[in-house]
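Methods — Computational structure assignment.
A single polypeptide chain was analysed. Its primary sequence is given first, followed by the predicted tertiary structure written as structure tokens.
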Amino acid sequence: MISGVSGLNAQSQNLGVISDNISNLNTIGYKGTVGRFSTLVTEAATDTRYTPGGVRFHPTALISKQGLLQATSSSTAAAISGDGFFIVRDSSSPGSNDELFFTRAGDFKPDDDGYLRNTAGYYVQGWATDREGNLLDRNGNTTSSNSSAVSDLQVIDVNRILTAAAATTNIELSANLNRDETAVAGGTNVSTTLGLDYDTTLLDGFGGISAGDSFDITHEGTTTTITITATDTLATLAAKISAVTGVSATTTTTGTNDTMTLTGAFADQDVTITNNNNTPLTALGFTGPFPATLSSTYTAGDLASGTVAEDNTMPITIYDSLGAAHTVNLQLVKLGQNRWAFEFTGQTGTDELDAASHPNGLIQSGILTFNGDGSLGSYTDSSGNDLTNTNITANWSNGSNQSEITLDLGTIGFQDGFTQFGAQTDPNGNIVEYTTNFINQNGAQAGNMVNYSFTEDGFLEIEYANGVKRPVYKLAIATFEAPDEMENHTGNVYRQTRESGDYLLREPGLNGAGNVVASALEGSNVDLGTEFTNMIVTQRAYSANTKTITTTDEMLDELIRIKR
């Protein structure tokens, strides 16, 4: 009889499990429970004796079993596809010692204060992010997801940033610079020797020059020695000099009193000429004293000051941290073959660039070089430092934060940004010396929040009236070694237990955490057909156990009748 009673109790509990499963058939994120049974033995059986013990009931939660994902129109609903749980608390302003709960119920909606909570009233937690989506701790410093960073989590608040301006942080440009543009002339030095025919007069023996005399040309740290031979004329000497990188030589061709002009090949680079063996430069009448310099005719800032005229200007509208618009210009001038200078400039004055930080409105100067196929060869500042992925700084006088801007002019070695080809023609056949393909910048003026939603990456993204979309939070996902061992709690949430192991914080889709599915909900993982089948089996088992009790009762009656 006691064994039968234990069977009734076990089947009754199993029916309770089935009832709970059916009653939560439409509960978002509900995880069903299945009944398991094990024998209860009071004494070991022998060949001649058996002692009935009964049965023990074991409810087993199917927490790790995925439920069906269902689309929803709610922009703040989210489901997890894969392992992990949303981290929630029962207060919108929890203390550091308040308990954490875990749930798959992602039917989140903002309360009166803008905090996201689900139907059961639990508030979802995540990391605050910066504009680029980097995780932030509670002090606003960049952090990362790890098992010890729970103190960095915050209750997600859709009203965190109601109005936002987007300061320009990146400018992308693509344009073609005219290969045939006349370059700014470099520094020059002209000989003044009389009685010299450029292509017939031998230099050996002329004006004190002898074969074997030499002079040095130094350009960008490289020195080349030019030696005069017995057959050299002014024309052949000019050819030798022009073969040296950084300098060119030309002669007059009048036939009498011809002269040679030495010119720096690049307007921004000095060239030094020095007598080496005897004084051939002096004999030819070049201006000394030696060493003499073919001085650069362009220095950084000359475009901003107007000292040198630009070949092309590209105006760009950018925004500071307060949403104020500023017009800046990318000015360009050709310095020599495959070499251009650029200056990024703006206006100084009230509410514009700070004049002390930006003399003549100069924000950044630099050099562009191009390869033989027209692709970008290098992108550096005027000192030769690489500017690829480097921030350019602008300081404003209107109280806004300093702007840090990446000026993206293309990929080195590719033709996806700035290129250098010959002038093009428009559909009407007109020459277009400079072609701008696109100018993109990511700033915007101030705008109010108009919408918000979760993204597939788990970000809560807010959209503003100015068209800016900005991530402000990222959902945190907790994973467990044994999630089925977690403890159920009212509100369709779970608690961590010793058996489940400690939680680990993950970003969605990383390190074993499931992916966030935006505008979706995870349904109950209960199968109604299975529950009805289990209900029938349980009812039959319960009925059968009652038969063992009634039969035992009849046997006891018979035993009592013996005494009668």
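Note: The mean pLDDT is 92.
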